[in-house]
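Check the record.
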Amino acid sequence: MKKLLLFAVLVLAFSATAYSQDVKLDFRASGFIDFRTELYRWNWTTNLAGRTFIIQAVDADNKPSATGASAWNKTSSYAEERMRLKFDAVMGKELSGTIFFEADSSYFGDYRGQTSLEGPMRNSMGWWNGDQAALEIKNAYFDVAVPYVPVPMTMRFGLQPFGTRANMFMYADGTGVTASAKIDPVQITAAWAKLLEGKQANGDDSDLYSLQLSAKVDTFTIGGYGYYFDMRTYPLNNGYTSPNGVPAYGSTANSIASKMYWLGLYADGKMGPVNLNFDFVYDNGWVKKKIADQKVKYAGWTSRLKVDYPWEAFNFGVVGFYGSGADANKTDQLGLPGKAVANLGAAPATSSKVGSYVVPINSETGSFNEGEVLTASYINDGFTGINYSGSSFNMTRGSQGGIWLAKVYGAYKVTPEFKMTLNALYYGDTTKNGDTFGNSRQADGLTLKNSSNIGFEVDLINEWQIYKNLVFRFGGGILWAGSALSMWNPVTASNEKPNTPWIFVTRLTYSF
């Protein structure tokens, strides 16, 4: 892999005059500005549900409590905004550069100097009086056509998107190099990315290597990919001390490393009158302390099949999905070596295995939006949902691990400008000896219960094309909670099921 990249760079360096003809600069700009509102009851306000494998204990904002200080069963609401601005400088077919900016308000009324694990004032342009340092550089890269090679080949350098099948596997922005070649009918893409440099004189950095293949076969596009994460520092955030017990980087006794790989297959195409989409992803690897002989093995999988049947102004479909879950007798909340397992009533043991499917570091798979209440909302681009995971400095189950679902839906285009979609979903729990979202317990107050019923959900989604460049989406859903969402109340020493969770969401988007 490294030799291939070096060869391509040398080819570029010694053929600088190959495309010296006069080419005019084509400068383009695009982007969007949107406005969103959320009104809901019972949501994971800190996204802790998506960043742990088993809920052993939850933060004060979410757990049921007799003190009245929690958000349990209370109605919440907020408004927010996102902006993206992209510039492309194109010099013919051989050379182009891209600079991509983004800015967000976490909610209207952000407070000045807002800080988080991600950095000061990030996602906080909603502060009264404005003037926040909230503008982010999402991407900054350039693409080059490689001359004097027998097949069409391009290379990309800089801060760029990495990933495949974003709603199922991975999307992340990072710095690195990508090489793509077309050998008909196969498209080949190889990439290297630097996740963390660490100390330059030490072998403590983290790297990503990937290879993707895809081809058009009859009416189908079929592809496969492999990703290898060599993380000599884990979690990735240098100097980070987590309240959840993740060891600080640099502590000799607690320093952690991880090696993980993901293998995936997918197929998209048309079979007779129906459209098919299929995905399968498998993860395997380990997390261990560098000095102590403590290791946690990882092995999980996820799969999804979607079938669409379009008919005149209608579209009918079904989705089946499964994500393997963890075992509370073998896994702690974060899958770390040396930590007590989540099921405190089990025999004394430390974390040894994560059977849950996990997503790569900082992968934004919160866009796994099959519904509106449990999974991340399609309407507001995936920023809500009990199961919204966001990104994290350590591996998590994402939005997929620990659940399975069956979904039927129907869409009707009422007019050329207005479409309605009705979803019906059933969610099941695949976590063993505990629950993915709930932490209900046996009479001893320690041993976790194991339930399989998360609940049944119904959603209505509306999409209105007001103008050519202005779209208004609105709707929501209701989830009839099952026993797998019950939480342990330490004050009353009893399990409590939440009142019926629901959400209403709107998003108005101006694109240009």
About this structure: The chain has one domain: 2-511. Helices lie at 2-13. The longest helix spans residues 2-13.
